[in-house]
Amino acid sequence: MEGVETEISGAITPKWQIHAGYSYLHSQIKTAANPRDDGIFLLVPKHSANLWTTYQVTPGLTVGGGVNAMSGITSSAGMHAGGYATFDAMAAYRFTPKLKLQINADNIFNRHYYARVGGTNTFNIPGSERSLTANLRYSF
Q1: What are the distances in angstroms from CA 135 to CA 19, 92, 107?
Q2: Can you say how many angstroms the Cα of residue 134 is from the centroid of all Cα atoms in its chain?
Q3: What residues make up the domain containing 111?
Q4: TonB-dependent receptor-like beta-barrel domain spans which residues (predicted)?
Q5: What total number of domains does the chain contain?
Q6: What average pLDDT does the segment 99-112 reach?
Q7: Model confidence, pTM
Q8: Distance between alpha carbon 98 and the CA centroid of its chain, in Å?
Q9: Closest CA to 22 of 89, 71, 84, 72
């Protein structure tokens, strides 16, 4: 497997943070005991990218959003899963220095995609559907 991975993150302003990443991977099985022995390498997308940003609206309130994108993958059995992008969002409120509430919305447009493909009837794993989670954290 050969490739390159790069990330950049920083503050655009004191209240606005950004993080971006990109990965290019070239995977190839040169010899295998079994002609269908693709291991996991053919199931790795060639291109993947992410972008995430947060903004501190008030001293207690932070909002953010981002996108994760992957190119398509193909199994040795010839099954193909197309590329996809999912969008996420979050909001967090710090009530006190020790108490924080955060709500995350993942895959907010409910994009249907396959995280893994295998054969016609096996090992085809759908990606995560839209979800909403809340986390209340108290530090002591």
Answers
A1: 22, 9, 18
A2: 19
A3: 2-138
A4: 3-108
A5: 1
A6: 97
A7: 0.80
A8: 29
A9: 71
